[in-house]
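Meet today's protein:

…
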Amino acid sequence: MDNTIILIVAIVVAAAAGAALALMIAKRNAKSHANEIVEKARLEAEVLKNNEVIKGKEEGMAIKSEAEKQANARLAKVQSSEAKMKQRELLLNQQQADLQRKTKEVENQKANLDHQQSVVEDYKKEVEKMERSVRDTLEHVSGMSADEAREKLIESLKDEAKTAAASYINDIMDDAKLTANKEAKRIIVESIQRVATETAIENAVTVFHIDNDEIKGRIIGREGRNIRALEAATGIEIIVDDTPEAIVLSGFDPVRREIARLALHQLVADGRIHPARIEEVVAKVRKQVEEEVIETGKRTAIDMGIHGLHPELIRLIGKMKYRSSYGQNLLQHSRETANLCAIMASELGLNPKKARRAGLLHDIGKVPDDEPELPHAVLGMRLAEKFKEKPDICNAIGAHHDEEEAQSMYAPIVQVCDAISGARPGARREVVEAYIKRLNDLERLALSYPGVVKTYAIQAGRELRVIVGADKISDEETEKLSNEIAQKIQDELTYPGQVRITVIRETRAVSYAK
């Protein structure tokens, strides 16, 4: 047993010694391995360190290179700036030298001018002395002072300038009339020649013809009841006098006169004349006349080739048949104006239909149902606007007497054609007193000028002949006088068309043989 224990102990000791030896070997191996790891790590660190050093050197070289580039660029700029500064300095030096040279030249010129000025002043003093001497001599010879001579010379030059200006103005006006107005005259003349017109004169009375004078008594009726009923129904004064086979219907409203005429015609033809019958016939005739008015308006619009008119405008056109202006039938005047407008618009390259429409409607303000206190042109424009006529048509209606401002070419066309239609010979009648007064005003106005001996208004006031004294007015002054009279007539008088002023100066030598 002891041997066994000893054996066991020996085994244990041997095992322990083997383990210690193994442990020692293991420690030695571990230390060797650790040394290898450390050495490897050291080598790797050295490699990394070398790499970083190389990389740092490269970056440093790049930074150095960039810095050198920037430094070189700045150096180049500085050198360029220095070169420019040197060049500018040279330029400034040159300019300064030029300035100094010019300053010297100016100083020299100033010195010369001062010298010349002194010389001029000396000459001026000499001239003034000579002028005073000459003026004293002239005043002594002429017997007038210098101021008096100057005023006389100014007056003489002023008269010559006025005469020359008048002659020059006449030449310019004649040239303008021959050139600028040539085309306008051609258009107007052709327009007038292409329109067939007739003289249409109406009065404020209508004569109703009867077969015998016995009918007058029946029209008057017992105690005048028939004629009173007829006058009350028609609003027309019925004059039954000694005129054979005629009864006069007097009134300023042509529509009412026409109603009275037709009513009398039916009453006389029927034979039954009494108040009830008169009222019945007048009412019937009034309706017929209204229908005829509308029919006249429609027929006029068709004849003129005008379409799309409002029915109320058509009725107003028909009413114009029974209205007159200065004795000229209003419908005839409007048709004539419309035709002239269309022809003139065609010559000017405008729309003839629009012009014809505006010309036909231009006087509808004269036939309204009510009577507002407005100019007929403005009233006609408002009626046209009310019934949806186009703006240029409305403006042409409103502007044909200058109450409104013209906004298109149709307005002056209507204005001119209206004047042509109204001013042509025979178109309108003029009150004799107003006509004579206008002629007297023309003659009296021209006679008020100095040097005028006699004046004659001829050709119905379209020409004024002025006889002047040959010893008071020269040939050149006649032109100035003609212009002054024309301007004064234009400013102060009212007249249709134009007035021609002819100044006549003549010298007569009279001798007698005995």
About this structure: Residues 313 and 387 are 8 Å apart (CA to CA). Residues 196-202 have pLDDT under 50 and may be disordered. The first helix runs from residue 2 to 142.
